[in-house]
Amino acid sequence: MSYDGLFTHAMVQELQAKLVEGRVMKISQPYPNEVILTIRSQRKNYPLLLSANPSYARAQITAIPYTNPPVPTNFTMMLRKYLEGARLVAIEQLECDRVINFAFSNRNELGDKLPLLLSIEIMGRHSNVILINQAENKIIDTIKHVGLDQNRYRTLLPGSTYRLPPKQAKQNPLTASPADFEQLVAAYPNREVLAKELQANFQGLALDSALYLADYFHQTGVSAANLAALWAKLAQPTPSLLTEPKLNFSAFDYPSATASTRFESLSELLDEFYGTKATRDRVKQQGARLILVVKNNYKKNKKKLGKLKRELVATENADDYRLKGELLTTYLYQVEPKQKTVTLPNYYANEQPVTISLKPQLSPAQNAQSYFKRYTKLKNAVGYINEQISLTEQELAYLDSIQAQIELAEPKDLPDIALELESGGYLKKPKQKAKRKPKLSQPAKFKASDGSEILVGKNNLQNDRLSLKTAAKNYWWLHVKDIPGSHVIIANPHPSEETLLEAANLAAYYSKAQGSANVAVDYVQVKHLRKPNGAKPGFVIYEGQQTLFVTPDKELVTRLKAE
Q1: Number of other residues whose CB lies within 10 A of the CB of residue 119
Q2: How far apart are alpha carbons 60 and 78 in whole angstroms?
Q3: pLDDT exceeds 90 at position 70
Q4: The predicted structure's pLDDT at residue 254
Q5: Do residues 416 and 538 lie in contact, with contact meaning Cβ atoms separated by under 8 Å?
Q6: Is 346 helix (H, G, I), strand (E, B) or coil?
Q7: 228 CB contacts (<8 Å, ≥6 apart)?
Q8: What whole-number percentage of the chain has pLDDT above 70?
């Protein structure tokens, strides 16, 4: 089920049960298109997420932690001015559309009541969050400003008169009579055709919801009782994460064969479904500069490595140049001036003839010296080229590790990665008036089944500090074998076998092998780690290791973090 009108209806009922009569305690805007209102209701704080993200627009209560930007946006300041301390008096859906209106009651500077409406429109790239003065029907501010040049019908700018979204000429399925559905069911016995007709005639139905209704009506028929039972499922939904025919979510009770996981609430379901996707999207947006720098440097070094290897292959012909120089020197009397080629017997190979190219502008002796010089140059280049190949391969491995870290990063991890790239000269350091040492974020913390603390570095600077400075020498260190990934520390000199396996699972999960099976993970005590002089951040060498084989398990990682 998509976040369509029916899912919106179910979500509104969930939010009504938890939030109505609550008060707004805190407002933040962690990302450009998303705001979070922390509402105190029923002696609990509920973070209400209103997202106008073009790909993941939604309204829900979220348990995913967010980091606030140091400077609040203008929209955040406007929300705080009008809504902090306000009471949430109602939550309503606009018919069966993807529009949710949150009605608040607050007081202005004179102490008079001020009715306010915070409306979220979940409409793909047109999604928006709008703060409205209900008494005057004026827009106070919006998370996305829409001027006349973008939409002539509907201007969404501060001070504009608020207009509802354009209404579709379709019926509200939640208020339609059984007869309205019965006509379509009788006329279209085919499941897919009926679903299309339901979409064409009724408001707020995505294709997957329309297919569900088509199946329901074909199985049970259409009657007032059946229709009431159908809508009752939205009042008491069964939040399910579906795996067939593709990964999706639903408020309806689909057959258990297609549901991989069930959740206590629709909000928990959306956290699971959108959490990773939205995080990856934010990382791509906020880390675009880092991704581009790493990609360009990787491409440049890959090209350099290819050139070096071609030059190394060329050095294999060095002896051929020496041979030709020796033959020219030996048979110099047989070489005529201004010749372009000469064929001479090779006394190293039973007098087999060898054709030698010559430069006409050079004398025979100079041509011989030219071949000796080329031979000497190539022989001297072998050591240098091998050294450069080694350095370039190390550089590629380092950039590969940075790429893996960005892929696994959360938005809060990006500043550390940017700092590392600045230190390495890949990024220009920003100009600062006062020099202040940047504060690094802390490694992720997990708790093993036996209570041992497990620490996971999320970037190379964290990895270095964790493994080489903060970890005790008798703690245990883990890392995937020969693949970029996080350093993992078990803060226990004598971990159980189960703890070792759990830590190995974390090392595999937070690595480039996250989607692989049977991942090799090395483990060794910290005292056996060593960092070579001049090595890149995050690079260590070790000896005396043992190896475990695990398959990354997201559910285990979530459980260890929760514990």
Answers
A1: 22
A2: 21
A3: no
A4: 67
A5: no
A6: strand
A7: none
A8: 96
- The tokens for 233 are 């499922």
- To the nearest 10°, report the CA torsion of 145, 149, 151, 153: 120
CA torsion 124-126-129-131 (nearest 10°) is -160
User: How many degrees, rounded to 5, is the angle at CA 231 between CA 225 and CA 234?
Assistant: 150
Closest CA to 319 of 350, 351, 354: 354
According to DSSP, the residues that pair with 21 across neighbouring strands are none
Q: Which of 286, 292, 285 is nearest to 421 (CA)?
A: 292
Q: Are 376 and 253 a contacting pair, CB within 8 Å? A: no
Q: Are 1 and 7 in contact (CB under 8 A)?
A: yes
How, if at all, do strands 352-357 and 444-447 pair? unpaired
Q: Rounded CA gap, 371 and 359, in Å?
A: 11
> How would DSSP label each residue in 442-463?
PPEEEE-TTS-EEEE--SHHHH
The residues, any chain, with a CB within 8 Å of residue 186's CB and separated by 6 or more, are none
User: Mapped to the 3 state alphabet, what secondary structure does 7-32 carry?
Assistant: HHHHHHHHHHHHHCCCEEEEEEEEEC
Q: What are phi and psi of 74, to 5 degrees?
A: -60, -40
Within 10 angstroms of residue 333's Cβ, the number of other Cβ atoms is 7
CB 96 within 8 A of CB 9: yes
Q: Tell me: pLDDT of 280 over 60.
A: yes
Token code pair at residue 94: 């606009």
Angle between helices 207-220 and 178-187 (to 10 degrees): 90
Neighbours of 176 (CB within 10 A): 16
CB neighbours of 407 closer than 8 A, spacing ≥ 6? Answer: 512
Checking DSSP bridges between strand 341-346 and strand 352-357, what pairing results, if any? antiparallel
Using only C-alpha atoms, the chain has a radius of gyration, in whole angstroms, of 34
pLDDT of residue 257: 46
Kindly give, in sequence order, each residue whose CB lies less than 8 Å from that of residue 500, ignoring residues fewer than 6 positions away: 476, 478, 490, 523, 548
Overall average pLDDT of the 268-272 stretch = 90
Would you state the structure tokens that stand for residue 425, as one six-digit string?
């000269």
